[in-house]
Structure to design on (803 residues):
């Protein structure tokens, strides 16, 4: 499988097509591994010395928000300064494509610009987003410390399989109660929800999910399809219910 | 004698104010409408078809846009810039305001249920709260006229909690969706009926408003006029009479009286210049919202009205009520992975559960006096800043967990009647002023056992319905104190200038005319004598139409 990327292409928001192809080339190395490594729990060798979790603090983001009367027709494209540094954005991009890799015709997270959504999110001057920022930045910091402990390199410099051995230790619910991986696992779970939301909210992700609304209908609302009704009928029978 | 040369001034352009203005204009009277917020044009400002992915933070709620980026509310929400309010120690109260033409009608839920005969005479029945100064039969024809004008979809069900509308008034409601049908079947097994929700959403075109095309949330506003808001209906219709003048950014400071204590004018802050302007007034109709109207009255002190205008009873600001609210939802295993289709519909629940317990209450079978209804939340909604599902791992495994759960969640939203109590009221906080130097409202709040027992019953019922649908609960139900909404949170605040039969315990007579001042009327939800569970806006509009019609006849006869 793919070797460790020698020179990393930075995640550049709003990539040109050429850049996108280059970028995807780097990421596909990571994206190719999830199934392999997640099935291979034996790679979980004794590596980490002890539980660690960074004690980060950030000055509150005090830039104004978009205010109480923003244009709803043309929303601001850059409502506040973005805070993620290039190396942080790169890790976000790697993680985002581990969580949502390309599947046949369905694009990956970075292909629909999920890292930009995450950057906007963690940079926002609102309380929920600033809480998420602390959690996400702590996760990114933890990944580097863990990578240094295991392989003497920061996370982004690891080979894709090496990255996956760390991710496999924190990506599953079983890790939530673990002394060693509990905190990064909980932070990863929250980050994963955000990545999935950003993906499924995109036009391509929304299509992948199957959302069929937001189209004008002339005449009466048609209601459930035949398939949907047949499914309901079966369910009603199973539950001993009737309309 | 009233000031015959003065204006007929309506304060507020929301449900009550716009209906009052329209009714008066149509009857041939010149009206000057003051709106504290900016002008607002739904045709050019409504984000029709805009996706969450195009909005900052995937459209998520923030303190700037409490109901999400695209919510129609302008310069408002739970806080308004430069216009604070305070709460007493130990009280929690949330006050939703909008500072825009059309007020809160631009984003409201459009639920439009008539109050029934039970609702007007609650005190006569159980000794609690206050009766209204009339019966349902008095209001029924006005409900017909209002529903006809507004455009309401729904059906006549014959259920005791849902009085029928006149023949041909209601428009055809949209078909129920799958989760609503499943819920209906489960409720039926428990002896509880569901019914099509009545909503102020056109399913057939009316005047120059189009029928709903079943896309884009009503809460964002509706540029085609299908979802009712005064800015696409009553206000342009009133303008078309040639009798309406509107001043926006006009924040009323106080109502001024003459030596006899009769109202002679209104002073307002022009928010753009910051200047305070005076207007001569022949009639003042307050429709600034229950708490804002009470605030104006309490801030309008004079030698003749030392406790505030129209407050000889001491009832202004008292009897403040909201609806009770609670929520219980669950993932329904049988709905996981079900066939996907377009469930946007009119973007709110097509079915709901009306209160089914009137007979039980008559028989003393329930330990709480007033009823509630359930609104249903479900469906294949537009993806936004959150994802459902019991997610683990990454890649296909994680994505599939989201997809499996998509459209499987069903929630029941309780909306119930509360009774007025001595702990729930608003007053003026003389220590705090807004940017314009106007003393602000201060809220006091405490739910009583009546509401807590009702919510406890509601949670148990919701759980039983969801379990009958196949859900299981690993956690016990929250207690009612935890589950119940905060005061004001349901945005159904009413009662602060209640109407009644006597000047000693009410602020206005049955026409919304203040007992103390013949030429001051209240035509918002402040006049409600009780707060039935059925969402206040339809009744605000109905009362405003009825009472403004009465006012017009008084003007025509020269009585006022």
């Amino acid at each position: 499988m793919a070797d460790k990327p020698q020179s990393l292409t930075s995640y550049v928001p709003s990539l040109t097509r050429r850049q996108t192809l280059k970028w995807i080339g780097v990421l596909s190395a990571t994206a190719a591994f999830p199934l392999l490594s997640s099935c291979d729990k034996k790679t979980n060798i004794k590596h980490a010395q002890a539980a660690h979790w960074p004690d980060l603090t950030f000055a509150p983001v005090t830039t104004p928000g978009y205010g109480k009367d923003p244009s709803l027709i043309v929303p601001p494209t850059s409502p506040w300064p973005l805070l993620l540094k290039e190396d942080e954005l790169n890790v976000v991009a790697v993680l985002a494509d581990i969580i949502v890799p390309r599947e046949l015709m369905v694009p990956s997270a970075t292909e629909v610009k999920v890292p930009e959504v995450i950057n906007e999110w963690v940079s926002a001057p609102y309380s929920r987003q600033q809480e998420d920022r602390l959690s996400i930045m702590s996760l990114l910091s933890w990944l580097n410390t863990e990578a240094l402990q295991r392989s003497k390199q920061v996370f982004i410099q690891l080979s894709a399989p090496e990255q996956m051995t760390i991710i496999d230790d924190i990506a599953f619910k079983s890790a939530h109660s673990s002394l060693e991986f509990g905190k990064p696992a909980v932070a990863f779970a929250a980050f994963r929800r955000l990545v999935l939301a950003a993906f499924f909210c995109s036009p391509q992700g929304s299509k992948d999910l199957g959302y069929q609304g937001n189209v004008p209908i002339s005449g009466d609302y048609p209601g459930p399809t035949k398939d949907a009704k047949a499914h309901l009928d079966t369910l009603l029978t199973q539950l001993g219910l009737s309309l | 004698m009233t000031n015959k040369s003065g204006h007929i001034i309506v304060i507020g352009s929301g449900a009550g104010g716009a209906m009052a203005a329209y009714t008066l204009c149509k009857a041939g009277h010149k009206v000057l409408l003051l709106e504290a917020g900016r002008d607002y044009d739904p045709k050019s400002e409504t984000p029709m078809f805009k996706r969450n992915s195009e909005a900052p933070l995937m459209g998520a709620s923030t303190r700037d846009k409490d109901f999400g980026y695209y919510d129609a509310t302008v310069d408002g929400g739970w806080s308004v810039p430069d216009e604070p309010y305070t709460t007493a120690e130990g009280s929690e109260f949330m006050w939703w305001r909008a500072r825009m033409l059309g007020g809160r009608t631009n984003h409201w839920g459009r639920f439009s249920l008539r109050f029934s005969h039970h609702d007007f005479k609650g005190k006569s029945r159980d000794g609690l709260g206050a009766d209204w100064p009339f019966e349902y039969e008095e209001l029924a024809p006005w409900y017909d006229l209002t529903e006809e004008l507004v455009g309401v979809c729904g059906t006549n069900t014959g259920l005791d909690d849902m009085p029928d509308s006149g023949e041909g008034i209601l428009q055809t409601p949209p078909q129920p969706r799958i989760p609503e049908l499943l819920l209906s079947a489960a409720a039926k097994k428990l002896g509880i009926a569901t019914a099509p929700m009545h909503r102020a959403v056109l399913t057939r075109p009316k005047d120059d408003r189009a029928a709903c095309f079943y896309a884009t949330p009503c809460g964002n506003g509706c540029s085609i006029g299908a979802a009712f808001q005064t800015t696409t209906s009553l206000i342009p219709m009133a303008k078309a009479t040639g009798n309406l003048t509107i001043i926006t950014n006009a924040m009323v400071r106080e109502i001024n009286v003459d030596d006899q204590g009769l109202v002679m004018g209104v002073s307002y802050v022009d928010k753009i210049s910051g200047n305070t302007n005076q207007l001569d007034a022949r009639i003042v109709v307050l429709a600034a919202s229950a708490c804002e109207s009470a605030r104006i009255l309490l801030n309008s002190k004079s030698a003749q009205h030392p406790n505030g205008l129209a407050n000889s009873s001491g009832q202004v600001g008292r009897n403040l009520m909201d609806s009770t609210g609670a929520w219980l939802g669950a993932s329904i295993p049988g709905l996981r992975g079900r066939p996907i289709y377009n469930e946007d519909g009119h973007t709110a629940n097509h079915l709901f559960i009306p209160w089914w317990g009137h007979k039980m209450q008559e028989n003393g079978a329930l330990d709480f006096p007033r009823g509630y209804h359930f609104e249903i939340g479900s469906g294949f909604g537009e993806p936004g800043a959150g994802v459902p599902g019991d997610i683990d791992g990454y890649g296909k495994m994680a994505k599939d967990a989201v997809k499996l759960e998509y459209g499987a969640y069903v929630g029941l939203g309780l909306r119930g009647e509360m009774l007025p109590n001595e702990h729930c009221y608003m007053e003026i906080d003389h220590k705090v002023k807004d940017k314009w130097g106007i003393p602000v409202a201060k809220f006091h709040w405490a739910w009583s056992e009546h509401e807590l027992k009702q919510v406890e019953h509601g949670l148990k019922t919701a759980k039983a319905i969801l379990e009958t649908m196949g859900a299981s609960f690993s956690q016990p139900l929250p207690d009612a104190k935890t589950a119940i909404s905060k005061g004001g949170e349901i945005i159904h605040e009413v009662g602060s200038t209640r109407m009644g039969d006597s000047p000693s315990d009410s602020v206005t007579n049955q026409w919304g005319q203040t007992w103390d001042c013949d030429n001051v009327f209240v035509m918002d939800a402040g006049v409600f004598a009780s707060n039935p569970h059925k969402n206040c806006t339809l009744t605000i509009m109905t009362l405003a139409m009825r009472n403004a019609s009465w006012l017009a006849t008084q003007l025509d006869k020269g009585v006022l």
Notes: Chain A touches chain B through 74 residues (CB under 8 Å). The two ends of chain A are 56 Å apart (CA to CA). Confidence is low (pLDDT under 50) at residues 1-8, 15-48 of chain A. DSSP finds nine helices and no strands in chain A.
